[in-house]
Structures are given as structure tokens and as C-alpha cells.
Amino acid sequence: xxxxxxxxxxxTGTIASHGDRRRVVFATVIGTTVEWYDFFVYASAAxxxxxxxxxxxxGEQAAILLxxxxxxxxxxxxxxxxxxxxHFGDKYGRxxxxxxxxxxxGGATTLIGVLPxxxxxxxxxxxxxxxxxxxxxxxAGGEWGGAVLMAVEHAPRKKRGLFxxxxxxxxxxxxxxxxxxxxxxxxxxxxxxxxxxxxxxxFLLSIVLIVIGxxxxxxVEESPVFAEIAERKEQTRLPIVQLFRRHTPLVVIAALVFAxxxxxxxxxxxxxxxxxxxDPSGPVGLEAGPVLWAVTGSGFTWLAxxxxxxxxxxxxxxRATYLVGWVVQLGGVLALFPLVNTGGVGGxxxxxxxxxVGLGFTYGPQAALYSELFPASVRFSGVSISYxxxxxxxxxxxxxxxxxLVQATGTTWAVTWYLAGMTAIGLVATLLLRDRSGIPLGPxxxxxxxxxxxxxVSKA
Length: 460
Hints:
Layout: H1 18-53, H2 60-76, H3 78-92, H4 94-112, H5 118-121, H6 124-154, H7 160-188, H8 192-198, H9 200-204, H10 206-218, H11 224-231, H12 239-265, H13 272-278, H14 288-316, H15 318-340, H16 345-361, H17 366-373, H18 379-396, H19 398-409, H20 413-431, H21 446-450
Helix pairs in contact: 1-2, 1-4, 1-6, 1-7, 1-10, 1-13, 2-6, 2-18, 2-19, 3-4, 3-6, 3-18, 4-6, 4-10, 6-7, 6-18, 7-14, 7-17, 12-18, 12-20, 14-15, 14-16, 15-16, 15-20, 19-20
């Protein structure tokens, strides 16, 4: 069996049915939605309540920075999750890693929902919060790579962008679900009741989502590319070592591509806009409920643009789609705060919705782009570690940096230029890459895959 056929074939050479592919798409969407729901519930709570419940003794401004810093702390542990998931995913398969990361993420999220506050146990409260946040980071570091490879390696060659968009739309779906549940709780438990117990309910609901996600993922077949590698007993012994020995420059460039998207994306997913728009001493000063509904609405525009971008990348190539996306994202970055600062919920929605169109076009093709960059034997490691490093460089501390810039300058223009600079970095990184849309993904084509995707470089 040829490697070019493997994304649509089982190890025995029979064509995978449409039903098999639908199950894979459904499983990756459900699984990543659950994972990112957990992640974004935390980010929303960090922007709305954690500064007052866990860090208040530090003072109002410092508490806000500390709360956002806990969002970023988890990113520092994503590479550890990526290293572990990449090693075991390239050695033992994609599916086992996906099930494990789902359980770890959901368990940590549920436990946050029952944590005592600083007023109840003192310094132990923020310490426990950070420990659980670290577990979320380790899980997130391993989740994404496995999900995108399951989707892309099952896909027909000419539909990898579309199939790869499936785990990508799990991110806006997670944002939509997390913001929606938070908004509902702000209605059910308004004011002090939200601060006392309402914020805990979205965390506790994670246990239900874990059960659903676990059931769905257990029913999915292993990636046909990995199944073929395993059948031949060709698993790489130390995939991480091989990755960095041969592909370090590629890992860095791929990471910078995602960093350009992540910095802008984490204005909403990291909770910054929610905090900024609800700050009673700020220029907007809205209630939490309307802001959460505005962010929820932007989840729809992000979802739609992500899906469309994946489809478009199958028509015009990953690189061209990204280049369009960077231009649109820059426009969204420049429009974000002028729209939010109009002071109404409509302005908040317009600002984040316009931004998410560009975010979708610089995120929708990412699964296919990353999968086509790395050889089959180290693909899980390459995809996961590039994503994790990019998350640190881009999204990890973007909310903290934004809050610090506003506190230091008294204006949001400093944040706008920061986000514009990160967008430019993503654009330059994309220009450094060749388009590899449609390259064979199977192990028979390792030689072709090993030719460097970096422009001007012939070998990895």
C-alpha cells in the first residue's frame, strides 16, 4: 500500500467508508469542544471572578494581573504535554492519547469547581488553583496534535483542509459553549450570587461532557497512517530526539505561525475583553451578562470563518489562505478597541466578531498545514510541539501583557500595536514556508516528506 493512499485507506488496503470518516470528524469536533470548553471556562472566570476570590489580598490591579497570569501559566506546561503526547502518540498511537488528555482536562476542570477560596483557606486556594491549571495546560498540550492528525490522516487528499477544520471548529464551539453557560449562570445567579456559587456550575458541568467525549472517542478507529506504521513495526524509538535533530528550524517557524494567531485570539479566549468591558472604572463598564452574550455571538462568526477557511485552503492552498487571513486579521486588530470602546454591547460584539473572521482564516487551515509539514514518523511530535511553543509565544501571556500595557500607558493603542506586531510575525513566518498542500502523508513517502518546507532550504 502506498503512503499516498493511506489517508483514505485502512492498513488492510480497503477504502475507509464515509461512515468511518464521519465518526472521526464527529469525534474530533466533540472531543476538542469539550477540551476547549474546559479551557475557556477557566479563562472567563479568570477575567470575571478569580481576581476577587483567589488574589484579592494583592490589591485590585495586582490581583487582575495575577489572575490573568494563571491563564498564561498553563501554557508553560503545554510543551511538557506536547512532549509526552508526541512521544506516546508516535509510539503507541493517536487514539490512546486523545482519550487520556480528555480525562485529565475534564478532571482538573471539575475539581476547580469545588475549590475553596482565599477567604476560606488562605494561600492554599491560589496554589491549588495553579496546580489544577497546570494539569489543564499539560492536557491541552497533547490534545490538539492528536485530534488534528486523526482528522487529517483519515481525510481524502483533496479534502484535508476541510477535514482538518473539524478539530479547529472545536475551539470556537468551546468558546461559544463556555461563554453561553457563563452567561446563563449570570442570569440565574446575578450579582453576588454569581460570585458566591454561580461561577462554579460551568466547571462542575465538565463531568457530563467528559462522559460524552470519552464515549465518542473510544468508538473511533486509529489513524490509518499510524496503523500502517505500527503494522510494519516502524515506530520511531525516540521521536522527540529525531524531531529536534532534523527539524528544529521548521518547529520554530511553525510555532511563529500560530503565535501570530494566538496573541489576537486570546483577547477573547484568554478573558481579557471580558474583563476590560466589565471593569466598572473602565471606559465601557458593562454588566457581565451582556458581555458574555456578545462573546458567545462571536463564537458563531469564528466557527463559520474557521470552517470556510479550511474549505478554501483545499481550493487555493494553505499558504495563500493564510496570507489572506493575516490581512483580514490585521484589520480586525485595528478595529477591535475602537468598536469595543463605543461603550455598548453592540460595539463589543462588533469588535470581537470582526476580529474572529481574521482569526478563523489564520486558524482553519492550521491542522492541514501542520500535518503536511512533518514526516509521518515524527508528525505527532512535530505538530504538538510546534503548537505548544506557538501558544507560549503568542497566547500564553497576551491577556497579562494587554492588562499591563493599559495600566502603564492608560490607552488601548499600545495593545493594538502589540497585536499588530504579532500578526506581522505570523505573516513573515508564513512567507518563509512552501505550500505542501496534498503531499502524501503515509510512511512510504518519508523521503519526499523530509524535503524541507522552508523556502530556500533543500533538505531538513
